[in-house]
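PROTEIN ENTRY
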Amino acid sequence: MGDAMTANRDRVASAHVPESPHGHGRPIAVRFEGVSFAYGSDPILQDVSFHIHEGEFAALIGPNGSGKTTILRLLLGLAAPASGRIEVLGAPPHTALESLGYVPQNAAYDPAFPISVAEVVRMGRLRGGSGSYSREDLRAADAALEQADVAELRDRPYSALSGGQRRRVLVARALAANPRLLVLDEPTANMDADSETRLFRALGELRGRTTVLVVTHDTLFVSDLTDAVLCVGDRDGRPGSVVRHASIPVARGLAPGVFGGGARQVLHDTEIPPEACCGEGD
């Protein structure tokens, strides 16, 4: 496998790294500018700057403990930076939540509570109202069930599903709100191959219309849907740096994940200037 990956790398090492077709000329959906954050005296992020354009499919990668969870908390408005500026859909993070869909890695639930898949998805339409659903809410939930490829599960108890099926139902719940930005934390963790294929097929249909951010600890490969690879880690003695890396297609079967049919290898030795996607890089 190592020889095949090296050969694949050599074949394309001198190739031009294409810019995202969904980035250039589009507004910026997520912007971190000079952001630093610490827990007490322990620095987690230092002078982090990156951005994601509307409609892009981005992967935020890094090993456990690198700062990915902190970036997520800042993006969701659950924490504030010590310095720097963060914008989500052109606004401070806490004011953009109604336009954001979030799929957590683990969602706590009571297996004894009798709730169906359809009812879980409809909860994505709740926005602090009375708890009742309009006809528009029901139509949106039905569309999300279809979009996430879980419509056949709609009447089943949520507790009876596999882990991969539950994760796709949570994606449907997030999509029911018609988010402009969809964030998925470790979406393929402990997911079976069939669920993973269905998940990335559904995400592929969003590409170019909804901004998608997938957070993962896999630093070697990303889905072939990925427009932008943002890598979190220690660099030059600074913790929590973020750089954008190039990636190249790999032959089917070389990547350990399914990713819905294709994968890209991350080139950690090839850094893309921050503004290259905007036509301002070198």
Q: What stands out?
A: The chain has one domain: 2-108+181-278.
